[in-house]
Prior knowledge:
Helices cover 75% and strands 1% of the residues. With 407 residues, it is an all-alpha fold. It is globular, with a radius of gyration of 20 Å. The N terminus is likely disordered.
Amino acid sequence: MHSSSQTLPPKRERLLLIVLALVQFAHIVDFMIIMPLGPRLMLDFNISPARFGGLVSAYTFSAGLCGFIAAPLLDRFTRRTALLFAFSGFIIGTALCGFAHTYYWLMAARIVAGGFGGVSGALIMASVADAIPMERRGAAMGTIMMSFSLASVLGVPLGLTAADHLPMGWRAPFLILSAFSLLLLALVTMALPHVNRTPRSAGESVMASLGAVFAVPRHWIAFGFTAALMFSGFVIITYLSPSLVGNAGIENHHLKYIYMTGGLCTFVSMPLIGRLGDRFGLFRVFTIVALLSMPFMWIITHLGYAPSLWHILPLTTLFMITVSGRVAPGFTLVTGAVEPRHRGGFLSVNTAIQQIASGFAAMVAGYLVVRTPSGGLLHYERAGYLGIGVLLLSIFLASKIHRVPKA
């Protein structure tokens, strides 16, 4: 038997969310930093947009595959034990990225980091779902999702600054992040609260455990929603930085201001949208924010030359606010579609699908756009049209997600 969500004292609950958000922060910085480094990597390795998309996809496909492999196993271990193991592997993979000197070495390192990082992400979501009651889970997910904002405000700008000024160049962010994560691992070891739950019996069949997750029809709807939501964002986000540099004429060293400003705003907007979802209904808030994001998805993918950074900054900021704002109510909807006894496996599979959909989006976008000899991108607008269409599908699927009745 698995325990349902247990109530933690307020201080312990805050500590849990802070520690999990920091782990998620490290994972998200590692995932995000490759995209603004795209112009440098394409130049340094002399690769096409499609091969750069392969670097992004390698991380997410690995995360997805490892998520599927781990799905039936996660409920056999305590969340704390599993998270410490997965985060340790992530640190090793990130350090290997920093020592990469060839395209294929970097590809292999991204696969290692992505695999362990994806499992860590699933464990974070499962830990929140275990410990936080449904009536507060939207706000809790909003807090965890603030790691995206913190990554944009601090992680990515600091990483890009290090790449600009340190002799290691684009390798510097990965080396610094691995050192930071090593310190964070010590904090996790000391501070992560023990959430009392009974691990699944080792005598149960692995395939039976995974089969139980896929046997529930409402799980399939939730998985489809996750895939559509992630694809709709990353088909555009993957080539945002190369487009800003190549098409809009933004300098490489100005990209950090775009991420910093967008991150500061989403730092406020994401938890606010999570609380609005708790108060006014998750589906309603998700739909409103998703519809608001569509005009900015269109604008971002149709940008031409900008006279200055200040002409671009309001548009990129509103794009980040609305696209990131869909995540907290959307993912909270998904956590309500699963019974506690299937939660670990379900959320691992869901995270795997999230990663695979993101990687597939990056791969598709790589074949939609074409890099010109001057460094610009052609046909980026195709990614915008595709993203908007798939986002409409995600709204339809969200309307079909139903919360599991309380016991």
